[in-house]
DNA sequence: GCAAAAATCCAAAGCGCTTTGAAAGGCTAC
DNA sequence: GTAGCCTTTCAAAGCGCTTTGGATTTTTGC
């Protein structure tokens, strides 16, 4: 009825016959207000549908309750589809804590400037760094800006310390390669992500170490490094299967290009597993997932290294919120091991 | 050197020997300031790296330069992957105009409340409505809140008027079904999206009208309606191919389930096109795209109805920004026609 | 040359919140 | 009863911007 004008602290406190100070403190849980008063205040606030203005609060406190995610469109002018799942996880955590996501698209080379601006403007309370390169200038800048941040992944830069959460990509790929080697494969291809990205770099290391341990030389013709999309897997596979000595197994950086790999094989009349083995890194992308959540009865399609990127989003978000709450706490980092699941796409190599 | 404390309007105006008013107006392009003064002000602002505080500006003007996107996690607890591409388009438009995205995850049933809060808090200057249902309560609320918004899609609710941008889904599916009918198919399946969504509802209408025109009864056994993910296409296809009278062609709501359809066929030793025709709605998802941007030489894989969801994002964002600039302008709406492209997955039905 | 109009610029009042520093009220202890 | 100590509440000063309603200066018109 009388919700004509939106009620603010002033009118609320006048209604209650209290000062703005007391009302503000009552609502923000300060100890120096009598519980009885607090109850009165809270009741009135709810009844009058009072909500503090975020911009006013932000101006007064310097906190925006916004978390920055600056993402770059990758080569194909797209948002990395893995990002959607990451953000789904992170967003859930933020929502519970009363934070929102501020999303900005910007090419990598502008991100340093953007972080500076976001920090100076106090537009966000913290940021998540996506897709760290092997050596990444964003880290140093963020540290010097004093803006809380957590890196999803790592970079190998010495010196500056920072919070991060990563999957043990090197070990995962080492293990997968070893699995194929143990099956008897000798010609193993790596359809990797962009190796400027640190995660891809590490995956390659794992792969190479395994080959080395088996006394097998790395063949550049079996190495690919691109954005992890479906057509890439297709193209790479078609190329390699044309070689004189084609691979008998393929290690793929994501289920997305792995789909391309299977499509290529299918075009060639080959069957994954029987003819060519495939192991993919499975980020548990929700729109591709099959039989993972569903009780585990079904045999998954791909043999895979598996780690939910959505769970990673949750965890990174939580780490960041913790840092924001407590900026002086020691830096944290977490390394997750990927699961290894055996599906239908691996078998010993076919005899020639 | 003296960048100790961040420079604000006050210090900047003192440095210049001007009032805050003049400096503010000079920077915001008001006409009543001499061009010479304006130049001086702008120069000084840049030199001192002055940036107006967003929260202060927001408090003073009531504008946040934030666009709200409230998205619900769909049944599979995921962000719809189509959304990522939409936001990639929209984000580009926003970035150019100096807006950011405020992203919030929330189940559909909470969105009405959330919109009310966002409006009351003046946290966003406008919102994009995603995934409109056939009858959607969000529209009415937004209109009564006076918060500028544009709907991606439409709802069929009478009465309340609103801005929207949609693809002509009914016509696209009508045309695709007709194409299959003309090829001689009589058993055509529809692997649709969730029919609570208006777009899916309209697609089904197009499909049914085409069948009706051809004098063919709709067979419920050939109708599916679920979240558009890969395993869904797989499962639906496996089920239908087990029928006594299996379909000879499938109309699929997205390339994602279409991948599942091909996987199912491949498992059955059937080839898309030769054995079973497939037409998919292709949103030009960037991570699946093949040979679309690349000059058009290659024959696309799927025969498809095609409309870039990324371009839709761009357009919707622009429409929203226009509305925010000029809230009293007449409502706009746009209906896009999908392209129809012939790929490798359609052929006349195989003779029995 | 002078009144009127136009062009510039300014002081101060918000916007709605948090927080400092102090006052008032209520209680205990002697 | 009153000094002293919590407890509870408050007035007022920001936070950094925009904007209203003048004031001042310059230009224009005749």
Quick recap:
The first copy, chain A, is α/β, with parallel strands linked by helices and 352 residues long.
The order of strands across the largest sheet of chain A is 2-1-3-4-5-11
Q: Detail the poorly predicted runs of chain A.
A: 291-296
How many domain regions of chain A?
Answer: 3
Counting DSSP H or I runs of 4 or more residues, the number of helices of chain A is 12
Largest sheet of chain A: 6 strands, parallel
- What form of chain A results from the Cα inertia axes? elongated
Mean pLDDT of chain A: 91
Folded structure, characterized:
The structure is a homodimer of 352-residue chains. By secondary structure, chain A is of the alpha/beta class. Chain A folds into 3 domains: 53 residues, 434 Repressor (Amino-terminal Domain) (Orthogonal Bundle); 131 residues, Rossmann fold (3-Layer(aba) Sandwich), CATH 3.40.50.2300; 139 residues, Response regulator (Rossmann fold, 3-Layer(aba) Sandwich). The first copy, chain A, has 12 helices and 12 strands. In chain A, the strands form 2 sheets. Chain A has a 6-stranded parallel β-sheet with strand order 2-1-3-4-5-11, with helices on both faces. A 6-stranded mixed β-sheet of chain A has the order 7-6-8-9-10-12, sandwiched between helices. In chain A, helix 8 packs parallel to helix 9. The first copy, chain A, is elongated and about 90 Å long. The N and C termini of chain A lie far apart (84 Å). About 2% of the residues of chain A have low confidence. At the A-B interface, helix 4, helix 5, strand 2, helix 6 and helix 10 of A face helix 4, helix 5, strand 2, helix 6 and helix 10 of B. Strand 2 of chain A pairs antiparallel with strand 2 of chain B. Chain A binds a DNA duplex (30 and 30 nucleotides) through helix 2 and helix 4.
């Amino acid at each position: 009825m009388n919700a004509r004008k939106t009620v603010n602290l002033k009118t609320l406190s006048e209604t209650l016959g209290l000062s703005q100070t007391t009302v503000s403190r009552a609502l923000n849980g300060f100890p120096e207000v009598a519980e009885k008063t607090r109850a009165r205040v809270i009741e009135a606030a709810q009844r009058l549908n009072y909500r503090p203005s975020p911009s006013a609060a932000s101006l007064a406190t310097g906190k925006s309750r916004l978390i920055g995610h600056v993402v770059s469109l990758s080569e194909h002018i797209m948002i990395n589809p893995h990002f959607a799942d990451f953000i789904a996880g992170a967003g859930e955590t933020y929502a519970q804590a009363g934070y929102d996501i501020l999303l900005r698209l910007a090419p990598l080379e502008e991100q340093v400037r953007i972080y500076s601006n976001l920090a100076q403007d106090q537009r966000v309370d913290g940021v998540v760094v996506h897709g760290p390169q092997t050596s990444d200038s964003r880290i140093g800048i963020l540290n010097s800006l004093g803006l809380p941040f957590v890196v999803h992944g790592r970079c190998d830069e010495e010196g500056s310390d920072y919070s991060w959460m990563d999957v043990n990509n090197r070990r995962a790929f080492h293990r997968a390669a070893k699995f194929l080697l143990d099956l008897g494969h000798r010609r193993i291809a790596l359809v990797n992500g962009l190796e400027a990205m640190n995660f891809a770099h590490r995956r390659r290391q794992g792969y190479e170490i395994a080959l080395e341990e088996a006394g097998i030389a790395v063949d550049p013709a079996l190495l690919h490094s691109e954005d992890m999309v479906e057509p890439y897997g297709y193209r790479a596979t078609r190329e390699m299967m044309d070689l004189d000595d084609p691979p008998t197994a393929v290690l793929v950086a994501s289920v997305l290009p792995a789909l391309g790999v299977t499509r290529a094989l299918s075009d060639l009349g080959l069957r994954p597993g029987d003819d060519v083995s495939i192991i993919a890194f499975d980020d548990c992308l929700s729109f591709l997932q099959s039989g993972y959540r569903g009780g585990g009865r079904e045999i998954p399609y791909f043999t895979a290294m598996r780690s939910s990127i959505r769970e990673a989003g949750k965890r990174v978000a939580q780490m960041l919120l913790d840092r924001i709450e407590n900026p002086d706490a020691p830096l944290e980092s977490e390394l997750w091991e990927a699961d290894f699941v055996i599906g239908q796409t691996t078998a010993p190599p076919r005899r020639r």
